[in-house]
Each structure stands twice: as C-alpha cells, then as structure tokens.
Design a protein that fits this description.
Layout: E1 3-9, E2 15-20, E3 38-41
Antiparallel strand pairs: 1-2, 1-3
The protein binds zinc ion (ZN).
Zinc ion binds at residues 9, 11-12, 14, 30, 32-33, 35.
C-alpha cells in the first residue's frame, strides 16, 4: 500500500508530496523543474 511522503527538490528547493511505497526505490522527478535531484524528507512530528 502506497503512502504519501514528502520530497524536496535540491535544485529548485520546492517541497511536494508524492506516493511512496516503503522498500521500493523509485526515481523521482521534480514536478516544477523536472530535475531528478529529489530527496525524501522524513516527516517531522510536532
Ligand atoms: Zn525542482
């Protein structure tokens, strides 16, 4: 079952949510600049 995870683009620094399946490494592309320099951000619990 896919979850929503937060990602950040290292190129344009925008943050966005994408479906994420634990254990599966997929290549991510930034929806803004089409860069593949996208890192997953761990959700910070307040
Ligand atoms: Zn970007």
């Amino acid at each position: 079952m896919a979850e929503e995870a937060k990602f950040k683009c290292l190129r344009c620094m925008s943050e966005f949510c994408l479906p994420y399946t634990p254990g599966v490494t997929e290549e991510r592309t930034c929806p803004n600049c089409s860069s593949n320099s996208v890192r997953r951000i761990k959700g910070d619990k307040k």
